[in-house]
Amino acid sequence: MSIFLTKDSKVVVQGMTGSEGTKHTTRMLASGTNIVGGVNPRKAGQSVKFSAFDGQDTEVAVFGTVADAIKETGADVSIIFVPPKFTKDAVLEAIEAGMPLVVVITEGVPVHDTAAFHAAAQASGTTRIIGPNCPGIITPGESNAGIIPANIAGAGRIGLVSKSGTLTYQMMYELSDIGFSTAIGIGGDPIVGTTHIDALRAFQDDPDTDAIVMIGEIGGDAEERAAAFIKENVTKPVVGYVAGFTAPEGKTMGHAGAIVSGSSGTAAAKQEALEAVGVKVGKTPTETANLMREIMQNLTK
Q1: Helix, strand, or coil (residue 49)
Q2: Tens digits of per-residue pLDDT, 38-54?
């Protein structure tokens, strides 16, 4: 079991023929992702050969539009590797085609563009967006839609949701011996398509997820809202980590949404909110992983 992405997911790559798209399509294919096509209007009707690590080549067709790709392949996931100025149009095209899941890897997307396609997705009632500015989503051993290294952790029963790509990788590595049902990097921009709460709800409903790691960071109030949701709706154990305890006030740190203003958005405030609802919060990623390790050991006794 997993959330949002399974072994049956059929993935198309918007921007597959670009340098980043080509590189990560190769990696996704190597990790077992069922990539059924790419999208590039200028190369419609062509195909691209990808050399797998096992020596077997894979031919992937290129379609002119997302709608064509869905019609021909039954695709239900699109992952977007296009420059920021073209991202809005790419996402809107996927939404208009009725794509159920759209993973937006691109960094530096203007917030007003994100707001526009986020609103369009909500209005559609059919499309879920993950990102932008995120590493994507992986269900280990089944499918990988994004740039998360597939070899750092196997399948297990921990759910992971994180604002930070790098901390996603570290947490997966720290708990690689236990494994994950699904790990999802939601991105750290001020507006993201899938929130901590969305992932928490999905993990709570997933019978094969036993416990949840939630990684946040300074800026905004997403973690405080997640804490309120956990109090009312989550019965599974949750551990947390909040990046940015030493961040200076008023300075953006890494992600566009990671900025502290006065006492608003501080790591300490987020930690307090989470601990108040029973979430154990680690002071470092390693300590957080150890807290989860203890929980998983107790669950198996």
Answers
A1: strand
A2: 999 999 999 999 986 66
Residue 160: which domain range?
Answer: 152-299
Is 81:13 a contact under the CB 8 Å cutoff?
A: yes
Q: Residue 52 class from Cβ within 10 Å (0-12 exposed, 13-18 middle, 19+ buried)?
A: exposed
Same domain, 82 and 158: no
pTM for the full predicted model? 0.93
CB within 8 A of 200, min separation 6: which ones? 161, 212, 214, 226, 229, 230, 233, 234, 238
Residues 99 and 181 in one domain: no
Residues 6 or more apart whose CB falls under 8 angstroms from that of 249 comprise 260, 261, 262
User: Quick check: is 255 catalytic?
Assistant: yes
Domain with residue 219: its CATH number is 3.40.50.261
Spatial strand order in the sheet of 47-51: 47-51, 57-63, 35-39, 11-14, 77-80, 101-104, 128-130
Indicate whether 78 pLDDT > 80.
Answer: yes
